[in-house]
């Protein structure tokens, strides 16, 4: 099996939403980037902060490719196909939301996100999920913190440090 090494990083950047909050991670050094938006009938804007970027860690992939799944609740990483763990620490994405105390929210993640390496290689993240149960609600202090993970699909055509933007949209219900 011919293995190529990958350092795989998924960076977050929330997409703008008309009535929701927009979270911006504009500079890789800025871990406290905020975005805000107002929903109809709400006096308190939503603020979204990316606390931790999604990181699938380092793996090598064989000629048949494979998948790296990252569970948002436990942070456990599962490898399938011709994927070999090269060490490192995989990390679920962590998002923090502030707004109107007790308000119900809607969190929207895309079905797929394409990542790209500096050499032009591509990988895809699918199955993005959060650890939220039921309808998310801001606490009495107006705060909510959640994690998200997904599945990184790799083939053996390219190697590199993969990066991309994952839109995380948060809206008042």
Automatic annotation (TrEMBL):
Residues 1-21 form the signal peptide. Keywords: Signal. It comes from the Bacteria. This is Resolvase. It comes from Sphingopyxis indica.
């Amino acid at each position: 099996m011919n293995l190529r090494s990958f350092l795989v990083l998924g960076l977050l950047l929330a997409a703008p939403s008309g009535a929701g909050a927009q979270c911006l991670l504009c500079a890789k050094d800025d871990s406290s980037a905020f975005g805000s938006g107002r929903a109809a009938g709400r006096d308190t804007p939503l603020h979204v902060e990316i606390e931790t970027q999604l990181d699938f860690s380092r793996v090598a992939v064989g000629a048949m490719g494979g998948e790296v799944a990252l569970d948002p609740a436990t942070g456990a990483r599962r490898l399938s196909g011709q994927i070999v763990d090269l060490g490192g620490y995989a990390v679920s994405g962590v998002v923090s939301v502030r707004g109107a105390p007790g308000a119900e929210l809607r969190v929207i993640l895309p079905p797929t996100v394409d990542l790209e390496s500096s050499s032009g290689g591509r990988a895809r993240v699918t199955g993005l999920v959060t650890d939220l149960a039921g309808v998310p609600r801001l606490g009495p202090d107006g705060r909510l913190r959640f994690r998200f993970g997904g599945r990184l699909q790799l083939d053996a055509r390219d190697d590199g440090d993969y990066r991309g933007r994952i839109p995380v949209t948060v809206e008042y219900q």
